[in-house]
Design goal:
mainly alpha, 10 helices
């Protein structure tokens, strides 16, 4: 692993000032670390998969019209072509093929993590009592978290070869131990 997590966090913070986008990056990092164990090669890739999650939107706030060109170029310059490819592939408008487990997992975890965070934020108990069934019901409500690409959520689970309900529960379970850090404890 060439790129250290500390360097990735420094880059994210240099390019991303908003706390909400940093929290999203951290949430996707957490889920991607768990995904390396479940959908990937295991412990040997946890750090790399986490960095992919952390940096996938690093250039979005400062250069939304260029997203993800700048972070992809930076990752390539840092000697991380696999992470750069996964970040390119997660931006489905580019139509970069999802060739590896890392590519497929980042697509499957990004939008869904954001959606689950939105679900947790409107619940008095936050993520503590959130269940897959509730998330699936909210996914059908197009007005809720309207910017979330529902097609990407479904395509992500399909790309991993898992049932959407199971993947939703996996993401919830990955986020739950980090509820306090992510502001997902609820009001109760």
């Amino acid at each position: 692993m060439g790129l250290a997590r500390e360097a990735a966090w420094t880059k994210l913070c240099a390019w991303t000032e908003s706390e909400s986008l940093r929290k999203h990056a951290r949430a996707v990092e957490i889920v991607m670390r768990a995904a390396a164990e479940r959908y990937g090669p295991g412990a040997s890739d946890v750090e790399r998969w986490g960095i992919a999650g952390l940096l996938h939107d690093a250039d979005y706030e400062r250069w939304p019209e260029d997203h993800p060109k700048r972070i992809v170029a930076w990752l390539e310059a840092e000697g991380e072509p696999e992470i750069a490819h996964a970040v390119s592939a997660h931006y489905t408008k580019w139509q970069v093929p999802h060739e590896t487990a890392l590519d497929r997992a980042l697509l499957a975890c990004d939008e869904l993590t954001g959606f689950i965070v939105a679900c947790a934020l409107v619940r008095p108990e936050g993520v503590r009592t959130l269940a897959s069934k509730s998330v699936l019901k909210k996914l059908k409500d197009r007005a809720f978290a309207a910017k979330v690409e529902r097609a990407e959520v479904h395509a992500g689970a399909e790309g991993l070869g898992v049932e959407l309900a199971d993947h939703v529960q996996f993401v919830i379970d990955a986020l739950r131990p980090h509820a306090r850090e992510l502001g997902l404890e609820g009001r109760g």
